[in-house]
Structures
1.
Amino acid sequence: MTGAIGSLLVVLAVLLGACSGAGRVRPSGSSPGGTVRLYTSVTQDTVDAVLSVFADAHPEIAVETFRAPTGELDARIASERRAGRVGGDVLWGTDPLSVQAYAADGLLARWTPDEAGAVPAAYRADRFWGTRILNMVIVAGEAVEPMPLDWSDLTAAAYAGRVAIPDPGFAGSAFGALGYFATSPAFGMTYYRDLEANGAVQVQAIPEVLTDVAEGAYAAGMTLDKVARDAIGQGSPVRLVWPASGAIAIYSPIAVFTDAGNPDAARVFANFVLGTAAQQAIAGTGWQPIRDDVTGGPPIDGPQVAPDWNALFQQQDRLLEEYRSIFGG
Amino acid sequence: MPEARGRWRFAGWLLLAGALVTLVAWPLLRLLLEGLDAGPGRLVDAVGAVGLAAVGNSLWTSALATLAAVGAGLGLALLTERGTGSARRWLRLAILVPLLVPDFVTAISWGRAYGPAGLTARLVGWDLPGLYGPAGIVLVLSVAAVPLAYLVIAAGIRVRAEPDLERAARASGATPFTAFRTVTLPLLAPVLVAAAGLVFVTSMNAFGTPAVLGRPAGFGTMTTRIYQDLAFSSADVAFLRVVGLALLLVVLGTAVVAVIDRATPSPERGGGPAGTPPTASSAPWPAMVIAWAGVALTVVLPLLALLLTALTRAVGLPPLPENLTLANFGRALDAAAIVGLRNSAVLATAAATIAVLLALLGTSLAGRRRRLLGTAVTLTFALPGSVLAVAVLLAFGATLRDTLAIILLAYLAKLWALGQRPLAAAADRVPGDLLRAARASGAGASATAWTIAIPLLAPVLAAGWLLVFVFALHEVTISALLYGPGTATLAVVILNLQQLGDPLVTSALAVILTALVAVASAALLILRRPGWSWVSLP
């Protein structure tokens, strides 16, 4: 049995060593290296596309990703704060409202990207910078009659009980849309009350809305342009309706954590996402890049609207609470 | 030389004791201390109405699933064990198929088959009402548990039910039903209790099924509540509720195991004469038809629906030949899935290797201590993955949080028994003469082990390794609670995808995982064809 004991000792030591080695090598010298921990809620295809060009440009920096929907990412960061400190280096969120809440709590470092000028003023703050734009649009079943044309149509009797909306507590883009509707003079929270009164149903995620509409469980719903476009490209029996009054444009900001264990490499990564190579990769996945000097993005088929994000900051909790009082929870 | 051997033996002991403390004693103690620290008053407050509702939901769904699974298991066991023939052999294999499918994949596949936009809705315009909700949870829990109940009852019928007595009753004029009620059923009662206990504990511990089917209806059980509170909430009260529910699950689980233990007769009292071996007789065909229809509807059709979804070009299209594609498999294997696949493979390999080595070490211990070890590791196997995950997180979270190592520790705590039990049983059958002969011919302890014991035990070691590997490969309860950046397992990736609601990619990845599990299990079956009742009965 001695052989067994010996080999067991060796295997235990090697495996535990290999498994626990987070390998966060401190950068030495001038060029940052080591590992960057990316906390993100942006879609996996976007992360994949950017990481693949980043690996080519910066082989010295490894990126470890934790990707989860906004609600779950929020919970993770909150529990890490309780335990001591946030373990991430870079935060790449879906919508400005969720990310600004962290800035307000002092979790994000002040930082100016190398190419700050390339990010339009409406899509940035002093601690976080837009990386791409999501367009919240209407998706409807191919055979739906009449076809909805604008947001206000979804509260009409023709769609009673046949509309699905995503959960703002789960999906950051739905939270952004909530911010727009709540502060727009044309809609206000009354819009959600009317939706609810018309039998609209809250599901969880953006792709779930699309699936439910495509499979005929609902006639129409709120979803993102690229999600709808992808499904149509594959042959799904749905239509993308660009709302006449405008698609809601929501930007996905990137930021560096105050507590970043590897801040230099974190800034290299964040800078890179705003650079042309990463922006082209984002455009290639079908999302709208933040830089207007990058082409190849998706078609913008109508007007885009957005709330005054700065005016909405600090109101996140109130917004969600009011929404919950309508759609429960 | 003897001195050196003593040192090795001591080192082995130390290692084993260390593993036991690290994997089992310390985490559970840490959980208990956390509860004591909060105090019963605050724990009860924290569990509150939300927690109590979850406890109630767990209890009643598990109870119903137990009734259904034991009933079906009994019927099937009577059908396959009362007679021989190839029809029965095939049915026996078919009944065990659900063991090859991870439970959350079964739940997803039922959604694709019987859900509002599922296969039957498309084909005949019928969907199963209440699938997403408690009724669906009970159904899928039962389906997943039928093989367990069946294995226990079939084994019991082989050793306990005495066909001679039944024939005597029939000869004395009893109707088949009376003979069954007054002779067979009382003889099988302890076996049925054991099967019920096993199914009940398994259903209480289930996480994948309620996570997939309960969420859309807002229906939570104890395990999904723990997951919600740990992964989606940051409030202190939610964490206290996790501790409270985990402690409650320990108490409930231990109580049920104790009941089974008292109800099950010890082996000495058990085996009477096995009676006349069953004769070859043709199975009653209506029963066979019902059994096969059950297998087809509960297992085959859902898996077929899952596969069709994975092959469908776009969501919302009917699964007709012109709409089929392999593209979803390519889309499914994105960077996150590849990392998940790698993590699952690393974890399963490491867990299987270490568990088998620990079992080997444990088996070299003498008599009473070995039995004690067996009891300790079996106890942790009976504990829900959620509880072990919370306990391990409390014990090692400060240093190992978000590493694969912390997931590995919880896996080992859970799966050690799977390596230990079969090996311990087999070691008892290694002929002592052979060992003594080797030692007498001058072989040292190590040489004896490597030349005699290990070759004899090799098939069992391989089987134990595969068993742990298969379980770890599709484990989701523990990994969903413990994963962090870069350490999600394939099962966690699938569960997260499922929550996003894209059925095509989710199904494609679920098919890939199921195929991997099936391949590993097939290897296991080939290795352990005769007498594999311990496969699910550690």
Note: Chain B has 23 helices and no strands.
2.
Amino acid sequence: MIMRMWVAVIVMASVFGMTSLGASSDETAKIIKISAKRFEYTPQQITLKIGVPVIFQLTTEDRTHGFNIPSMNLRADIVPGKVTELKVTPQKTGEFDFFCDVFCGSGHEGMNGKIKVAE
Amino acid sequence: MNNELDRREFLKFAGVGGVVFLSGLSGQPGLSFPIWKSKDFFFVQLSDTHWGFEGAKINPDAKGTLIKAVKEVNSLQQKPDFVVFTGDLTQTTDDTNVRKARMKEFKQIVSELDTKVVHFMPGEHDAALDKGETYKDFFGKTHYTFDHKNVHFIAIDNVSDPTGSIGEPQLEWLKADLAQQKPDANIVVLTHRPLFDLYPQWDWATRDGAKAIDLLMPFKNVTVFYGHIHQENHHMTGHIAHHSAKSLMLPMPLAGSMPKRQPIPWSASEPYKGMGFRNVLSESKSDNYQLSEYPIKEDARI
């Protein structure tokens, strides 16, 4: 059995307007689990509230994938056997696409999802 | 030998992919047909042939388009000095045997090109799943240099790493190669993905492409030819010109023009729309490349 590790990722989220160090130390943030496998994320649609901090916990079921939201300057590699955390606090409403930016095979180009930030 | 490039002959490329007339280096593409000097030359850029792709709604002539392109290039009286393929020669597959078969078929088809030299480059579809191992067995190195008539060509691999990165070892190699060049050297970079952030939302970028551009920036005459985005695009980063080529399998929409990154469906009324090839013409006395883009002709459909 693969031992899972927590990985804290420094977030540079210009659109979301905050940075995070050691995401798992923040107990007030809502946890959102996102699982990746070829060629989809689960869930594919995520709704957030403006000003409410969340921690994305990213895992993969098969191989290394990427999680990239360029409009938020937010990305991470999702590596097998690890939980990768990204903490963000949305400060702007709108819809933001995320996608896999680590080539994973035929169907890679369609591996994406959407984050909706509401009032 | 007739030293003057025949304009009609040049236009005869219409129907396949892209042709580039190298009239020096840098600047925007133009259309001129100067006197053919001893150091003038042109080469043909073909890209994103995706051999093995299947999808009748996108390209019902998937098994004929590349063959047609080869015939068009061969029909020229004025032969290009060389042909370059800027990646995604084959459609990706998890099956190593299928990948090998596709590369073998592709290589067999393009071996019919009536040109002495063909330079290949990988795309992520060729190389990302096995870090270029199968590709190298068929086509050799994934990054390399060559010189042709006072122009230094550098092929950069930004696809064998599935993250779409060049990587520090290759950047060090690039730095060492450029250290041998004079500031006014004519440099052409061939690569698959755009080195600049064309549209990261669709993964049309190279993660560490800015580092390569920084290394190239001190040189006065640098031009980049690439593929990946399946359409013609011209962009400047400072004085460095970047030109993408059309695909010979499936056209893609303009960046951000559609909600999703999906190929443009085949149009029965406009077959082969969005597909083509490029001619690059280099003229020793000028500082500009002359580019010409050509579509695929329906009457040549196989």
Note: The longest helix of chain B spans residues 96-110.
3.
Amino acid sequence: MTPGTPGIQVLEPGLQTTVQDLGRHGRQDLGVSPAGAADPAALILGNRLVGNPIDAAGLEVTLVGPALRFDVDAWVAVTGADLGAVLDRHPLPPGTAVPVRAGQVLRFRGGTRGCRAYVCVAGGIDVPPVLGSRSTDLVGRLGGPDGQGRPLRAGDRLAVGAGGFRGPDTVVRQARWRFVPDRFVARVVVGPHRDHFSAGALETFFGSEYTVTPASDRTGLRLSGPAVPRAAGEILSEGQALGAVQIPPDGQPIVLLAGRATVGGYPKLGVVITPDVALLGQARPGDTIRFAPIDPAEAVAVYRDWWRQLMSGEVVVERDAAVRSPLDGTFYSRPYRGAAPFVRPGDPVEPGTVVGVVEVMQTFFDVRAGFAGTAGNLRVADGERVAAGQVLMTMVPAGASGPAGPRPPGSGSAPGWWPGRPPGPPAGPGPRGG
Amino acid sequence: MTAGRSGRAGEDPGGVRVAPAGDQGVYVYFPQRIDPEVSRRVRRLAQALRQPEARRRGIREAVPAYASVYVIFDPLQTDHRQVARYCRRLLAGDAGGQEPPARRFRIPVVYGGRYGPDLEVVARHTGLTPDQVVRLHAGTDYFVYFTGFSPGFPFLGGMSPRLAVPRRVTPRTRVPAGSVGIAGRQTGIYPVDSPGGWNLIGRTPVALFHPDRDPPALLAAGDYVRFEPVSPDVYREIEAAAAAGAYQLRPEPVGSGGRAVHDAAGDAATGDAAPGGAAAGNAAGRGREEESR
């Protein structure tokens, strides 16, 4: 981007943060890797949360996250693994879209489960597309911040595109999705090189647990476990399917991920189905994986169901996050002068919890939360005149859970990350918040 | 997903086998050998699978290799069985339309020196002089079986078996783009800077891949390549012209008269028709430079 264009500044790059969309498709015959998000489900849902087309570019964060300063107001969703995203100092739960103000800094404190988080910004990360995609191909050296296929570096400035969700900041958008499974079980369609493997080899493969080694990267998961015996010799080099389970001569399987090269010469015992490849994008070194066979027709049915769920209205929910004044009067945040406030930012709130009072003609009316969640910042000052319907406080509604199962632990409680200011023109840089 | 009447494991009389690849692909396998005739069948099928009709049927991509086509489909629209059936129908009808006429690219290469630091190694290993290595390597047409692995990388057939040298024991951490190398019985050109274990005998200033070009890859399956020794001066001239966007390597048609050969043994004998040595190929190299724009 041209210097000075407002967008996102990379303060620290993290371990390996790359720009990814859903991939550079259609040129594998020329040797162009599709690249793209290692966990496409997380990118798709992040984009849906901020109102982008599902194939808009976001940032793929690996284990150790970057520090990103926003120069513009933006809606941002962090999806995928819970790598401890914090906006300024306020935790940002995974799968939740929030408004970010110019000057705020998004950081990652680290996590214990899952490998990759996705930062999706309304309008998308607008680096120059290469062959129709913004994805970073680290091996073929295409795409990314300058088109040269490299990860982010400190000092990079990323433009943010136009469009996307620009809704009121009194709503919260959440994804009901389980991004990281408790146990990794990947379903595999056996083949294409079935003949290279004995029945015993298949038994070993499907009956054993494999550990993800630190040699794994975006090109593939290198596993360690009981060796899978195979026929001697290589195959003629051929196209490489996403999710292909290659067995090199040492019998230790390699599962190919989004960043793979287009051609390879190890026999493939099978190919992991797409929905489970997305999950494997969340496997980190030390995690264990089991494999289960699935037949091709069933695999297609599973894919269709997965896609329908990913696209359905049920997985992205928008909720009013505001607590409003029931009538015209004067607002007080504490029961009497000098007392502790009813709630502080970050406090858990149940339906019916009193968060303040409004005084009308010497009579005090309780203001109660209508739903469970976490208290955010007050939007009005103590003793301020308020009108009926005016927003007094915003909340983060309690964690969504849905068809894809319970959300990862820790994501349900979200202290007061909510930016503590009413909408307005962006102020100068500098930390701020609740 | 055995396709109906064609027998067990999807095997065809024509030696074609279709095998599943996860939830959104199949592999179509031809007889597993490196052979221009098999390659022709591969190219025809891949080409047919790129037509609008295939797209309408939910086929997204066809990735050809030596003796296979990896076919990617949209599982929302179709499935393994339908795609396998369609591929067989294309093969039975030998569809795919007219094959484009064969082309030959003359690729300028500086052999030896810092451009090809392993030329001496290859000479020692093969018992040839460096000059003989260059003559042999540059004196034959190579057949592009397919491109893949990295952007624009050609899998070339036709190197003289006399030039076969094993990979380096210790791979280099960085091989510059354009390096021409030998590994085993294969020769190739590195399209991008990358680590690599091939023996480097020369380098070309010609970019094999540029994302802004259409098509982005210089070489396509079915093309022929001939290496033309040029001097470092010519290399630098071409490099400068390419940087200024004023260099384009144009192919020449491979006519029925001067039919290109991929048979290395046959062609190696005619090697002395090629320009002599690393520094002597100036004129030949210059002749192919074409100014454009």
Note: Residues 1-9, 256-293 of chain B have pLDDT under 50 and may be disordered.
